[in-house]
Amino acid sequence: SHFLTLELLKIITHGYLIYSMLDIYTVGSTRLAKIITGSEMRELLSPFDFSDTVIVKPNFVDRAPGTYTSPESLRLLFEALDSQIVVAEGHGLIRVLCDQDKGLCFDYNGEERDWSWIPRGGWSHFAKKDDWDWFSGGEHWGHLKELDNKYLDEKGFTDLFKEFDAEYINVTDEIWEGNVIDPDLIKKEVEEQYGQLFTEKFYGFIPVRLFEHRGSTLISFNKFKHYTTFTLKNMFGFIPDPIRCWWHGPKNSRMVNSIIDINKLYATFFNVLGVQESLGLTPRSNKEGSFGDASLSYDLVEGSKLVCAGMDLIEVDTLMAGVGSFGLVELEYLDKANGVLGRYRPELVEQVKNLSPYPSLS
Fold it and tell me: Residues near 255 by Cβ (< 8 Å), separated by ≥ 6?
């Protein structure tokens, strides 16, 4: 069932009582609201329990306008938390590549290539071969770290982290440096709770620096985009490969299993909260759009300011697919993870559409 609640919450901020009214929709166990301020974000998230330290997994997949977690939306989340904040993300070639720097050159079958070739012409090769030793063992890794620091600086994240005293952990660096928990110990605990993972290699993907906060709240904080990627898929960024072609697999043959595995892995050790946001500028599909490539071209529109939050990430993703008018058939992982990572109830899409006023993304 669903219902619309008008909640008057007492929020204690800097010693003052602030009364705020916010339209909060509750569908299943998930909460939705149009958010403008940090205090409103706090109100939306108020029923959820937060640990002394909260790990935030943003969506730093890209650098194209409107496609990544912005510092402005991250600020609203930070303002809603009283906990010590740890921001964690893996490296991504796509987010650091630009006209000024296409990465370093390397030899591929006797031909010179640069990093920008991998997501374009090299995807099919890397989807078949999971090998980044050539990259992590030399100057490529060092250059990637330099570009990533530059990305964080230029986009305003470095200053934001300093302002909120937030620690930043790059999981790729930690895993490649070997700073991980014994995979055998991880495997034992994961399989006791969820059974065997599809891919054995996942057991080696828990950094010590994150495991130190075991039992803490982990927020998958995802940016709404013009294609089907939500809070469960956002966890994909904890896979250390700078481009995760192999984990997608040829024709995306491994993607569903990879999404389920990385979520099982982290759900074993952390209390995962899914938060999907459409704050700030948001992509809208347009075949003749000014941004993106031929297959994913888009225009930028002012976001609906809708934020969706819940401990059942399958439910969160189902609702956001519905309000975004995406076909659920495209989200095979929701059905496959049903009863394991949450409850898959596609009928909730119609319930959220029947809310009045409808909290659309348009």
Answer: 247, 248, 249, 333
- Coil, strand or helix at 33: strand
The confidence score (pLDDT) of residue 11 equals 32
DSSP-based three-state secondary structure for 49: coil
Name the amino acid, one letter, at 110: G
Phi, psi at residue 338, to the nearest 5°?
-60, 130
The string over 295-326, giving b where at least 16 C-beta atoms fall within 10 Å of a residue's C-beta and e elsewhere, is: eebbbbbebbbbbbbbbbbbbbbbbbbbbbeb
**Helical segments of 207-282, H only:** 208-211, 231-234, 245-248, 255-269
Query: Among 238, 206, 200, 204, which residue's Cα sits nearest to residue 219?
Result: 238
d(CA 212, CA 150): 28
How many C-beta neighbours within 10 Å does residue 213 have? 20
Handedness of CA 252, 256, 261, 264 (dihedral sign): positive
Structure tokens at 98: 């630009």
For 169, the 3-state DSSP assignment is strand
* Spatial contact of 182 and 20, defined as CB atoms under 8 Å apart: no
77-126 per-position pLDDT tens digit: 999 999 999 999 999 999 999 888 999 999 998 999 999 999 988 999 99
Lowest mean pLDDT among 19-23, 54-58, 74-78, 255-259: 19-23
Q: What is the pTM of this model?
A: 0.92
Q: Which residue from 220, 253, 257, 293 is spatially nearest to 57, judged by alpha carbons?
A: 220
Nearest Cα neighbor of 179 from 156, 145, 204, 143 is 204
- Cβ(302)–Cβ(282) under 8 Å? yes
pLDDT digits (tens, 9 = 90+) for 232-277: 999 999 999 999 999 999 999 999 999 999 999 999 999 999 999 9
Q: Is 99 helix (H, G, I), strand (E, B) or coil?
A: coil
